[in-house]
């Protein structure tokens, strides 16, 4: 690893990344069974209602005006300036001020939750009771989100992600038991309640024992100038959250209203494998945020750009792998997963699959450009750009769903990114790095783009003419596609900037393997 990156920061990042990927892998395996189980015991209409209802819940996260979302970054900045959490004397003040603001916001959250419940459409009557439980869970857990956010900022990622896995296992077991008892949508709502509050004591214990002195002994007095400053910073996070919801959460709402809640289910099943696998790449950026924020305080802009370019190459490389594998096996996967169990045809078709995958790749690239602009201190600019992207995306989704049905939703997401975020973000990055747009594109995409086009053309050709008929065929097809993709992409992986990180890691793994061989041979 490059010497300019502190080893402890890298180790914290990799440790958290391993735990996060393990958690995501568990979700994939469990999802093979859970979603058909929910569909069988709840029914397609009610399950579609729940998928729409969970999207509504995400809009309540806007009520903190970005204050909790800002805490991990403020924590990382404080520890970066002081050289560690133990030396960050201003950190308890930051945490206490955040807690004070969140408590002021608490009545607003309760009021908005009540308004959201009262505004449920009459045709969604079956959702009213379960959504009331879920809204109550959100209100109760609203101030408690400070604790995991603080742990994320302290980069205690392995513990936080491990605990997240425990919470998910606990809530899933409880949900399955309640569904078997006949509680249907109430079981899903109560399971979600468990995820909001169950592990709060453990978060608190971890902070008190591992990071003593970080939590304030009492809440600081209200200093309105400081509150205004923090709300001003957080408001741009809030704008970014609105944008993210418009980009990623409106598709199900639009499909549920324009088509029907029943239509949400095949759309969700068709996009499940691309979504779950694609999220692994997005997790890379999310996990890296505290480290990048700390890196930003002590490194040059060019050094930060190099790190982000490497992350961009890593994300797009993995994104392309997901595209090529999923386009070949997705039809078989959905049929094996759901239709073969006699739930009706749930596969949305090859064109929906291609549209979802292309949207995934474009959005992964958008994500890295957005983080780059953010780390170059253009918080206000990136928030406004994302908001414009969200508005355009939502409008395009609405129009295209009316015109083309389910395929219109991912097409709208792709169009929004290409019209707004990508051109505006690339322009800012080019200005800040004194690089022309063509040079910037060559640096970010490198030798990846033409290799990606070659691979998706071949994978799509295969998918249009052949579908696996068994688990063995699907597994062999996925392995063959992944192997060919790896060989095609390997030269690009070893080139700078990603190669600056890949080659030392490969050398480290090789050294450990040789040491292990020598130990056993002795």
Account of the 3D structure:
The chain is 81% helix and 0% strand. The protein is an all-alpha fold. Helix 3 packs antiparallel against helix 4 and helix 14 runs antiparallel to helix 15.
Fold topology:
Elements (H helix, E strand, L loop, with lengths): L6 H36 L1 H15 L8 H16 L8 H28 L9 H14 L4 H8 L3 H24 L4 H13 L2 H11 L13 H25 L1 H9 L2 H38 L2 H37 L12 H26 L3 H26 L3 H25 L4 H9 L2 H18 L5 H23 L5 H23 L1
Helix pairs in contact: 1-2, 1-7, 1-12, 2-5, 2-11, 2-12, 3-4, 3-6, 3-10, 3-12, 4-5, 5-8, 7-8, 10-15, 11-12, 11-15, 12-13, 12-14, 13-14, 13-18, 13-19, 14-15, 14-16, 15-16, 18-19
| Apparent shape | globular
The radius of gyration is: 23 Å
Strand content: under 5%
| N- to C-terminal distance | 30 Å
Order of helices and strands: HHHHHHHHHHHHHHHHHHHH
How many discrete structural domains? 2
Low-confidence stretches: 1-8
Features of the shown structure:
disordered N terminus; 522 residues; mainly alpha; 2 domains; 20 helices
Give a short summary of the structure.
By secondary structure, the protein is an all-alpha fold.
